[in-house]
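re: that chain from earlier
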Amino acid sequence: MEWTVQELADRAGVSGRTLRHYHQIGLLTPDRIGANGYRYYGPTAVARLQRILLLREAGLSLAAISEALASGANPDDEINALEGHLAHLEHEQEALGLRIASVEHTLAMRREGRQPRMDMMLEGFNDRYEAEVTEQWGRDVFEQSNRWWHAKNLTQQRQFQADAEQLLTQWGELHQSGVSPSSDQAQQHAAVHAAWFAQIPGTPGHAGDIDKTRAMLTGMANPYTTNPDFHPAFGGAAAADFAAQALRHYAQHL
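^ sequence. v structure.
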């Protein structure tokens, strides 16, 4: 079975121009080109397009997609990559199911003239760090912390977030005061920071595992320096790097 450019474009939800562009840059080659100059796509090309669309949806550039597909030419590599895509889609499906249930709950309560539950209205919408936590510490850690978070009422969630903001603000104030990351003041605040992490179920600090706590604190400190998204919360890149240095020093001496 083969499809023309337009037939494949219609089924994939992309334009014929996009498919022709993919061909021109060597990203997606037709299975054959007919005597009439038409491009024809069979199962091999369609399977490759599936991966291209998955990677594009994940935010990769066309150059990065080309590199990823080139490095995964081995059939085993392709299977591993597809398993990874499937796991990601299943997680997205789970999150979407939670959001659908949340909206259905709100709609049902409104129709009955009743007040929706506040925690249900936010179910599935505030798991912003699922991918990061799962990648760094495993699915079990995310599940435990997620259940703990959703067990809190809205007031408790807001208080937790306020405490977190104050924790980071204090790092900026310490940096402005001119003390060193290894000073008593900075190390005392590092202990407070570590205790804040430890209250979250699933973390090694919560379980009392010193070695894994040391690794976690170091792992959490690194993005404070390298990820610009964290910098404003600390009051700037220098303050964020100060906090990272202090946490690493604290971890080394646990």
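Strands lie at 3-4, 32-33, 39-41.
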